Amino acid sequence: MRLFGRTMTAAAALVMTTSISFAEDVEVLHWWTSGGEAAALNVLKDNLAGAGTGWVDMPVAGGGGEAAMTALRARVTAGDAPTAVQMLGFDILDWAGEGALADLTATATAEGWDKVVPAALQGFSTSDGKWVAAPVNVHSTNWVWINKAALDATGLAAPTTWDELVAVLDKMKEAGITPLGHGGQPWQEATVFDGVVLGMGGDLYKKAFIDLDPAALGGPEMAEAFNRLIKLLTYVDDNFSGRDWNLASAMVINGEAGMQMMGDWAKGEFLKAGKVPGTDFVCIRFPGTQGSVTFNSDQFAMFNQADPAAQEAQVAMAKAIMDPAFQSAFNVVKGSVPARTDVPNDAFDDCGKKGMADLAEASTAGTLFGSMAHGHAAPAAVKNATYDVITAAFNGEYADGAAAAAALAEAVAAAQ
Ligand code: BGC
Questions:
Q1: Does one domain contain both 26 and 122?
Q2: How far is the CA of 37 from the centre of ligand 1 (A)?
Q3: What's the rounded mean pLDDT across residues 45-53?
Q4: CATH no. for residue 313?
Q5: Could you tell me the residue range of the domain that residue 311 belongs to?
Q6: Of the residues 322, 328, 329, 354, which has the maximum number of CB atoms within 10 A of its CB?
Q7: 50 and 158 share one domain
Q8: Mean pLDDT computed over 137-163
Q9: Does pLDDT of 10 surpass 90?
């Protein structure tokens, strides 16, 4: 407050400080509450603080963000939308369609976002030709995280096919550890299923989850995918039901479980625990999916605000998110890769470098698909219907894979 000289009273200074910091705050709704996620969130908070923007935290725990989206709906309905919201794929487009999102086009144009954000992401950052969200990363779901010592103990190489995967899981079971660290929540089972279906081929994945083709959803290949999913249930421990994803990661980190099938946010947990890729853990693409990527991108959508200072804070946040140096620093910690194509890979570990190379390769080859489990393949109603059938199948509620596939085709048709 030196600027105002000695004539300013303490009370006036307080009012000034309060109103300035209030006006420049962003209130951010997000679901980054695990250890690794919180570490990444701090990189973002610090970056914003450096740009003079304060942070009001609105965390809503729950992997995949379903609970966060429910909380968001309640806030908007009450006429009290947060400033900025972590959001995935089709949810962004839905809110944009409702006219709830601020237009970031002027900032995007001035900063040339269209030249550096991959087209697949722009499909979810823009609506009706306007930028409505700033992408902070690209995650992908077709990964498996393996405890290195547990893998070495099997005497087998990291699996590249379904049969090799089953052989490794069987050996781990014989060795007396839980082969698959898993949390029994619908979104986690759906995340595993992204990899299982992609392992049956990109064609099946695209036809079923993106084109919503009834024949692919209910056909023999999908039946086989469900049989594989049902088989995976035989490798989880008795307490899997309801477990949070980061606790399943911790089982692999501690050597209690052999592997976890999870998006690359899991790597954030390994890093937070001081584990090193290649030494303590191994990252592989879900067996049979090398060359293809099922992606999801966390983007920040800005909800319409009447206050010009709040609008300025939104622009400041959007710019800070899109800064290339920030995208490197943040994604190194988060486990994801940058949402810009011009960020060097130097700071990334081997799994991060692989993630960046795989993304570029899949994008060129036409084998980059939106993640069904994480809202980038179909709108929420279809996603939720898909979750229900997958979870029921995993928990043995259908006679076999064919019955599950028939139920999936029916559920998806009803949800559209
Ligand atoms: C988000 C990640 C998050 C994960 C688990 C995903 O949907 O994209 O950022 O870490 O859910 O919470």
A1: yes
A2: 8
A3: 91
A4: 3.40.190.10
A5: 22-139+298-351
A6: 322
A7: no
A8: 98
A9: no
**Residues 135, 146 within the same domain:** no
CA of 182 to the centre of ligand 1 (A): 16
The pTM of the full predicted model, rounded to 2 decimals, is 0.94
Domain count, the chain: 2
Q: What is the mean pLDDT of residues 360-373?
A: 98
Q: Ligand 1 centre and the CA of 402: distance in Å?
A: 30
Produce one character per residue of 257-276: b if its CB has 16 or more CB atoms within 10 Å, e if not: bbbbbbbbbbbbbbbbeebe
- DSSP letter at 234 equals G
Q: Where are the alpha helices (DSSP H) in 127-254?
A: 148-154, 162-174, 186-199, 202-205, 214-218, 220-232, 245-253
Please tell me the predicted confidence (pLDDT) of residue 1: 30
Judged against a pLDDT cut of 70, whether residue 5 lies above it is answered with no
Residue where a domain stops, chosen among 323, 351, 379: 351
Q: Please check whether residue 4 lies inside any domain of the structure.
A: no
**Taking CB atoms and a 6 Å cutoff, what residues make up the pocket around ligand 1?**
31, 37, 63-65, 88, 139, 265, 296, 298, 374
The Å distance, Cα 264 to ligand 1 centre, comes to 9
Nearest residue (CA) to ligand 1, atom 8: 298
| Cα-to-centroid distance, 59 and ligand 1 (Å) | 13
Say whether both 166 and 306 belong to one domain: no
Task: For residue 374, give the ligand 1 atom closest to its CA.
Answer: 7
- Quote the ligand 1 centre to 29 CA distance (angstroms): 13
- 26 with 97, same domain: the answer is yes
pLDDT above 70 covers a percentage of the chain that reads: 94
**Mean of the pLDDT values across residues 352-361?**
98
Looking at the domain assignment, is residue 14 inside a domain? no
Q: Are residues 375 and 392 in the same domain?
A: yes
Which residue has the least CA distance to atom 12 on ligand 1?
63
The tokens describing 367, both together, are 């084998």
Closest residue CA from atom 11 of ligand 1: 64
Q: Are 68 and 75 in contact (CB under 8 A)?
A: no
If we measure between CA atoms, which residue out of 265, 264, 270 comes closest to residue 250? Answer: 270
What whole-number distance in Å separates Cα of residue 86 and Cα of residue 107? 19
